[in-house]
Task: structure prediction
Amino acid sequence: KAGVTQTPRYLIKTRGQQVTLSCSPISGHRSVSWYQQTPGQGLQFLFEYFSETQRNKGNFPGRFSGRQFSNSRSEMNVSTLELGDSALYLCASSWGQGAMDTEAFFGQGTRLTVV
Amino acid sequence: AQTVTQSQPEMSVQEAETVTLSCTYDTSESDYYLFWYKQPPSRQMILVIRQEAYKQQNATENRFSVNFQKAAKSFSLKISDSQLGDAAMYFCAYKGYNDMRFGAGTRLTVKP
Result:
C-alpha cells in the first residue's frame, strides 16, 4: 500500500510570506503528526491531529498551525515566515488509537528554505 | 514531560564489526513504546526496531537488537555485522500516551 506522501518536496519562500505543506497519510491511518527537523534543534514535535481534531501541540508560536480533513489528509501552515523556519518538515501517520497504534510511518519530508 | 537522551553525537564502526548506540529516557508512565529510527541521507525516517515496555524480552530484527533495561530507563541498539548501508543518523524515540519524543540522534559512520 502507498506510504505517507508529503508535498511539495522542496520549497523556497521569502521572509514574511506564508506557506502551506500537505501530508497524505497511509490509508486507514487517522493520526497525523508534524515535526520540524533542524541541525541545531533536532526533531521537534509541532502538533498531532486525530479525526480532524488537534490532539497534542508542541511548543511553537501561533504562526504554526494545522488542520486535518475528513479523509485524514493534513495541512500545516506557517505564516509570516522567518529565516529560522528553514527546516525539514516531517509528517508521520499512525492508526491513532488502540492496540495497533504502536508505530509512526514517516513521509520523505518537505525541505523549506526561507530567504 | 518525557525526555529522550542520546549521549553519543557520533559513532564509528568497521564494516562487519558490532556497534552499540546508547539511549536513555525519563518517564513516569508505565505503558509505552520505544523505537529506533534510521535516517539515511535521503532523509526518509525508517523504523529499525520497536520494543513494548511491558515485554521483558529484548526485541531483535535480523542484525539489529536492543538491550532494554526498564528499571534503568535504558534502551540501547546493537548492530551486528555492520554494513556500509547502515551508515545514517539513528534516532531513539519514546511514545507514551501523548506524542512521540525523539533523542538528538547519533550519526553512525561505517568504515570499509
Notes: Chain A touches chain B at residues 33, 35, 42-43, 45, 48, 56, 58, 88, 90, 92, 102-106, 108-109, 111 (CB under 8 Å). Chain A is about 0% helix and 50% strand. The longest strand of chain A covers residues 42-50.
